[in-house]
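Many introductory courses stop at the sequence. We go one step further.
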Amino acid sequence: MMGFLIIDDHPLFGEALGNAIRISHPDARIFEAASIRQALSILATERNIDLALLDLLLPDAVGSSGFLRLRGSHPKLPILIVSSVEDKPTIREALAMGAVGYLSKSTSVGELSNAIARILSGSVSAPKAYAAAGTTVQTEAALREKIRKLTPQQVRVLHLLRNGLQNREIATELKLAESTVKAHVTEILRKLGLFSRNKAIIEIGKIAWPSPAPCQSARGERERPS
């Protein structure tokens, strides 16, 4: 059973987010907080939160301050920002800091549900206009340069992703937890400036690059995406 934390001080919108989650996860455990302080209190006792949905404008947070407090205390927690602030610099900053997605509060419940499902599979979600701007064709040289900035484990995941493997299959191949693979896929897409695994497969498939070195040990690696 998956766990979700909604951090929003508007009860009606919190209810809408809960409805969006239940469309694809009817048995989900959903926790609600109206401030960063309340969210941190919940996270201190609830260890199995798969996704936090964060509003940027809260009684005890402005701009990215709430995100940074959550990320500082829970660096592995996937955070999706759902906000009425829709300017591109804010979206770009949030994704650069490590948010797994950024959605507008004007997004329909159905679209929110689909976006949450994509995020949980490892994709990054952003408003359509921003995503379109972020998916312009990249030169081969630019894409190769971005690949060079991936960690060795992320390169292995990308190689298997390009070969059409799903997260569960990648986890089996690399002897990792599926949640770790999802985190790697999210970071790979963010670093490459892409917004879906299908787009990554298409773009990476256009260039030739050597197979990555195999994992040197079976030490039960749980490498943190970086």
